[in-house]
Structure formats: C-alpha cells, structure tokens
Amino acid sequence: MNNKMLGSVTGALILLAGSSGFANVDQAPDKKTMKISSTMDFLDHCYEETDPKVGYFTEAQLEKVFIDLKNIGVDKINYRVNACGLQHYNTTHGKKFAGDGRIGCENLARTLEKYDPCQLSIELGKKYGIEVFAWDSLGDDNPARFVYQGGHYVWWSLWTICRPGSQSKMIFGNEPLVDTQENLAKIYGAFPMLDPYYLKNKAASMRYDPKTVSEKVSVKNSRLPATRIVIDSYYTNKLPCKITKDDLSVYVSDENSVYKKYEGDFSLKIENESPVRLVLDGLNIPEKYACLIWKKARGDIFTMALKGSALKSGARVYSGDKEITTCWTYTRSGHPAGNEALFSLDFSSVTLNAELPYKDSRNYAWDYRNVCIGYCKGVADYFESKEHNFTREYRLGVPEYANAKLMEYKVAKFKDLAKYAWDGFTINLRTHNPHSEADKLGFGLENRDKFLKKYGVDVYQTDNYDKKAWNDLRAEPIDEFLSRIRQETGNRPLYMNVPARHADNYAYLGAWDSLQWHPDVWLKAKSVDGLCALFWDADKPLADLVKTNDSAAKIIQFYQINDGPTPDKFKQDLIKYQSSGIVDELEIYQTTVLLKGHNGKYGQVLKEFTGKNEPIQGSKVSPVTMP
Asked: Is it the case that residue 434 has pLDDT exceeding 90?
C-alpha cells in the first residue's frame, strides 16, 4: 500500500471541474482507485420496506437492493449479522431471537423464518459481482437497551408494541395498548432483547467499579418506608402550579420491571412560591422503586419544571424525618392509569454514585404531556429482576472478553458465522448500549487481578492508578480475540474498527469508549488485514492510522451518511478521500440511506463519482430457506 500523507484540499477541489464535478478523479497520477462499500443493516430494510400485506421482506426485494447498489457503483456490502439482539445466521450458540423476544423487529423475525438472508446475500453478491462481508459486533449491540414503559417497549424515543403474527406498531403518547401487559410479560419476559447467556453467566458482562457501588451508598436508609416526597421546581413561568391530587397516580415496584398502583392514601400540597414546591405526604411505600405518573397527558402550558443536573436537590424522599438516599430519573408514562403497569424506569444515564445521581443536564417540564418521574432507593439499575437476581453490579449484556468463558462463547459463535461463504469479515465497535459510564466499566476480577500482579495496585481499593495502563490492560483480551478468530477465517480478510480519539465520547462506541486500542499489535501479529477508521471525518487526515500501518494492510474509512451531509458535501468528501492516497475503501453507512437519502441524490452523486452508466437488470432468484 502506498502510505502517502493526505493530499491538499486545494488539489482535491481542483478535481471538481467538469459537468459532474468528478472529471479526472480516476486519472490522477499515483492514486489508487478507492473501493466503495456500504453497510447493509438488514433490519432497517425489513423495518422500512416490508409490505404489510406480504408480512416480510421478500427475496425479490433483497435482490433489487443488490441491483440498485451495483448500478451506483457499490463494490462491496458489509452485511450486519447481529443487530438489536437478533442473530441473522445459523448458530448452535445463543438464540436467534434473543430472550425469545422480537421487540421492534417483527418484520425481521418473519423474514428470518422465510429464508436465510445471509446465504441469499452471499449468492446475490456472486451473481452481481459484489463482495459480501459479514459485519459482526464486538458486543451484542444493545441487548439491554430496550425497556418496558407502560406496557410498551422503548427504543430510544419510540414506543413499540409487537405481537407474534402481527405487524410492529409504533405508539406515541397515550394511545391504547394493542395487547395486554400480562400477555406481553408472558411472551417476552423481563429481558426481551438479551442473549440468555448473560443471565446465566453474570461475569460475562462488564463489571462496574465496585467503589462506586459501595455498601454505604447502597443501603443508607434504603430499607425504610417512604412517607414523604418533596419536589422543588427550578422554573415556573411565574404561573401558579396547577397540579392536583386527582392528576397523579403513584406506582411502586420492588424490581423495576412490574409496577403496581399504590393504593394507599396520601395528601398533596402545593407551595406557590419561588421555587414552587410539591409535597406528597402520608405515604407508606416500602418498595424500592416508585414513580409519579399522570393519569392523562397534559397538553397545556407547563407550570413546573425540573433540571436534570440538580434533580438530587430538587426531588427528595423521606421516612419520617430521615432522608432516604435515592436516584431519580424521568421518562414517559405511556400507559393507561389504573392498570398494572409492565415497564421500567430507565436509569441508564444516571451515575452510579447516589450522591450525584443525575448526569444529564437537560431541563424538562414535568407537568406537560406525559412525562413521569421516579426514584430508586440507594443505587439504581435500569433493569433489575428478582427472578434472575440481577443488579447494578454488572453492565448487562456488554461482553467482558477478559472472562475466559465469555471468550470461548464468542469464538464459538464466530466459528458458526465463518461457516458461511463470506468474502471476508469486519468486527464492528458501534453499539447502542448506553455509554455514559464507560470509564466505570471493565472492573471484573480478571482485569483487577492481572493489574494487581503487574503494577501492584488494587483498583478495587484506590483511584490513584495509571488510567492509561489500566485501559491498555483492559484492551488486551480484544487483541487475543482477534488473533483467535483470525484462525477461523480460512484466509479470508478480517478488518477491525479503530475509533478516532477526537470522536469525543461518540455515543455509538458505548462501553468501549475508554479503551486504549492496539492496531499496531493487530497488524504486527497479522490478526487483521485492514483497519476501519471509525468516526474520522473527511477534514481530518488519517496520519495516526498510517503510522501504525504496513504496506499490505488496508485502510477503510467509515463514512456515516446518516448524519445528513448535503449531496454537495457528500461529493466533496468522496473526492477528498479518493485524493488522499491513503483510503483504500470508503464504507458508507448505510444502504437504505445511500439509496434513498435526499430523494435519491446520494445515489446519483455516487453513480457519477464511480462512472456507472450501464444499468443492469435482475432475474428471479430461488428462495434460500431456513434449515
């Protein structure tokens, strides 16, 4: 590989001359031709393009995607084989439908019952001359992010209900439930998107720093019943607070998965001063969790607001005259009042230290629409289940590769993936698992004991240690994992993501955000054939990656078109990367956006860039059925 530094932007922009803006790009001296690839997030195709009358994403539709991509010059597809807790490939390890759930993915679930999209994609790639790589996740991509909210399941800000044999339905606000909470619980359980392996093997998930989950913080007054709740507003719009007792319901739970309505009496008092203060008194709540839910959505102007970063001082719980240590959060209620509620409060953005319980600095109006607030006594988890005896000690579903059993499990799953005739493999770091506490993760016994032996420091006892050395050590099992799966590829190429350090805690890196990555180690050991530059943008050179590179390794630039660059910006970025002399391949995320974004203009820009002028036509393909 020709390791030249990034060419000047001025020189690149000269290439914009010509009617299409791409004249002479391929003729530039000493420049390699940049391969164009795109990530196929098959779940999104199923989700967005399934005909409700058909009920699944058909083989013919998948073939059309390949044809359309070929016609705009895509040379390679990175097929995402693990998304939202569902494995798309046949494996003897884990479950295809994690936790027996299909939340948010009903169209995908039905499609996987009809045919094997991995196998069909490989066959279509051979038919149309497109390489097809398996794009696997280092983690299990968001297995614990889906949470119950009033009989609904929340995926980011979306309310989703799915039933076997029916279409997914997006629910906003307080629309009626399609199914009963009881049936949803029986069908999906408490962890609908989670590989059950993580429930059976706690240490397979990353462990939190035990110093942040101290016994002192966890149990301080937490066994006392709550008798009074005091909430201060930081802003009132100078209007009198209009909340009444008839507006509110109180729901309680011991495990943050099934809530029941609090049937005891209580008084509500409003002090319309500055700040407005709301006091619920006469309560008797022994349960660990409680939340205040509006009986109906309030659409008028709000009169009471809370500030995330000040929620500790703005919301307090007492047992008699003793304050109870609590973590608070807010969410949407989203369920009819008066029914037993199957949902959970989402504490994923809350810090572990109950003395600083809320990290989010956003402000929000409480008495507006369907926001509800709630607390946990002591230290909260956004999932907790007595049935599985799972608490905040571990970050559920985030793999800890230092754990020997987890390592064997992940290698075994990769062996099953490698049985397919993929042209190659990419290991992906992107995850939707919340990332706000990445620096507090990875404190499993294996890492702690190894660090103690090497440096003589017990990270369970002190914060005074070399954080870079700690995160270097935590990354070493990833080096081992890549070396081991490299032996299973059958000499097919294996690429690995490398995140840019200027990504500034980019959300998609999740729990991996604090690690020190070792691309030089991977290349020296021949564990990988190329490095995929994750979140490096077109205006920042890849010199840091090139320094670790050798002449044989490939540099793949990840380009997130989902961020919505204009077609002109997309055009300029294509030219910059092509002109760099460094980028061997541009991986455009993702196929649905590339084909449809800006009313198809992205595809047209790429077609002009690649010079694709002769459209191809497809023919009917034979279904590839599931064994």
From this structure: no
